[in-house]
Amino acid sequence: MAFFGNCAKKGISMKAVRGFTIIELMVTLVIVAVMVTLAAPSFTRMIRQNRMSTQVNEFIAAANLAKSEAIRRSGPVKIQSDPGSAATAVFSANGFAVTSSGTVLRVFAKFTGATTLTHVTGTGPYTVATGTGLDYVQFNSRGGVDNSSTPVQFKACDTTDNAIGARLIKINAVGQISISTITSTSCP
After folding, report:
1. Which residues contact residue 14 at a Cβ distance below 8 angstroms, ignoring those fewer than 6 apart?
2. What would the mean pLDDT of 92-107 be, rounded to a whole number?
3. Which residues contact 148 (CB under 8 A, 6 or more apart)?
4. Domain 2-182: what homologous superfamily?
């Protein structure tokens, strides 16, 4: 009441003091709702891409740790799928660890979300590797890979959204790590 009284004292008419109409508020809310609806899928995809990038970088950090520890210790060091569970080519299911002569140097937690990291073979389409020795990569005292003369490959992908692409991680015989993006691929 004091506001309107002050307006009258200053000679301001009541028509000059006006707020938003209900129609203006409703139009604004509709515009905001449309914008949020259009942005939500892109935001969700961005979160998935960032999660996958973070998890791939974590695996690469583990591989670099294993390589540097092998050089430092002058002996073999492995990065392997969770040593406490059954041998598997899927590294993301139960986590993975860097080990040396049976001693665990560092444990990495399993991946969150829908990202999987799988030991794969081939040149595309990549298939889940089968056989023995697929649950680890062993680095030697020179930083090279012991258990393969061809590049060891891992495929990281999102099981719920193939459109964001997959990442192919290759570790060659001398221990060099490279990443490439694979488009239009299904996730194992």
Report:
1. 4, 7
2. 85
3. 137, 173
4. minor pseudopilin epsh domain (3.55.40.10)
